[in-house]
Amino acid sequence: MTRYELLQEVKTELKTWSKKIRALKLTRKFDKRDGRSLEDIEADIWNFKHKYRHQHIAYCEFRGKTREQIERPAEGNYPNETTISRLKTKWTEKIDEDVCVVS
Fold it and tell me: So what's the pLDDT on residue 100?
């Protein structure tokens, strides 16, 4: 997989997650819950937002943006650096593996 293909794949996944977040937010109203509890819906929204935020930061940094260009978090609302570095490492290894196979 080339770097370009990887970035396109990640971007597509981010778009999918953002659509899921929007759809879940619309199901908060009682008549649209389909028997699910509000706590379950809120937990799903939080999980997708958490994944989205960290993958978005890693994606932008992988493309060369600085953290200041990506976001300015509020005091005490800092992203998980371990998750971000793990994502970037996984993507780098994925690109390196494909380069080694082709060479």
Answer: 57
DSSP string, 11-75: HHHHHHHHHHHHHHHHTTSGGGSTT--HHHHHHHHHHHHHHHHHHHHHHHHHTT--HHHH--PPT
Residue 78: strand, helix, or coil = coil
User: Can you give the pTM of this predicted structure?
Assistant: 0.86
Residues recorded for the chain? 103
Q: Which residues of the chain have pLDDT under 70?
A: 98-103
CB 84 within 8 A of CB 54: yes
Q: What whole-number distance in Å separates Cα of residue 85 and Cα of residue 99?
A: 21
Where are the domains positioned within the chain?
3-102
For the chain, the farthest-separated pair of C-alpha atoms sits apart, in whole angstroms, at 57
For residues 33 and 21, give the distance between their C-alpha atoms in angstroms, rounded to a whole number.
Answer: 14
